Amino acid sequence: MLSGAEFPVAPLPPKKNSCWRTGRSGAAEDDLGARLGCSFARLPYTTTTAKMEVLLGITGKDFTIIAASKAAMRGATVLKASDDKTRQLNKHTLMAFSGEAGDTVQFAEYIQANAQLYSMRNETDLSPSAISHFVRGELASSLRSRKPYNVNLLLGGVDPITLKPALYWMDYLASMAPVPYAAHGYAQYYCLSILDKHHHPDITLGQGIKILNLCTDELKRRMPIDFKGMLVKAVTKDGVIDIEFDDDKVVKSA
Predict the structure, then answer these.
(1) How do the domains of the chain map onto residue ranges?
(2) Topology (CATH level 3) of domain 48-243
(3) CA distances from 108 to 116, 135, 167, 172, 174 (A)
(4) Which of 43, 122, 178, 236 sits at 20 to 30 Å (Cα–Cα) from 35?
(5) Distance (Å, rounded) from C-alpha 133 to C-alpha 76?
(6) Where is the chain membrane-spanning (predicted)?
(7) pTM for the full predicted model
């Protein structure tokens, strides 16, 4: 005879005034929900526009590089060619974002405000690890709400106490992983193999920029998308610095 712990557990029936997902389009579900007196939860998804945005991150001996494409796009249309997809959370932490246009800026500025509020209240900055866990918690809470944020993130920095670099990969489903290098969007398909080949933990900042150049050259060679170059920033023990990056280099086609 099975014990209570071994009995198979059946899924709970839907609560009153809630509906199972039907697989129909959003408008069709809204119409059906109105007739049934219920509503359907909206799950986030990765759009093609979000995938066309490039985010890259590289850690080294005593630094973390964060790079983001400058193009702000809506479908196939470039709305802005000098968009800054990063926010400085404190002196030693930087976050880059991609995803739905409204969600990205609203969520990034919400995280930035909370990190700075903590610094003012406690007269000390949160470490990159602490902020990443806070961000992951906010994404997890959002995912279980009616209107979840559709945001992918790279959070990098240098721990102000240990002076060790850190980089965290997070996506819209509230997954989080500490990584030595990372990419979001279609850049993953072209750049991760390059990073895997050339990266090692003790690279200098100059070597990190060279690896980043290899990645952007490959993107220009392979992707049929003009992402308007890269905005590059590095986090060191002295804070966040802007890196001058050559966006005008002509790459020979494959």
Answers:
(1) 14-43, 48-243
(2) Glutamine Phosphoribosylpyrophosphate, subunit 1, domain 1 (3.60.20)
(3) 12, 9, 17, 13, 14
(4) 43
(5) 34
(6) none
(7) 0.81
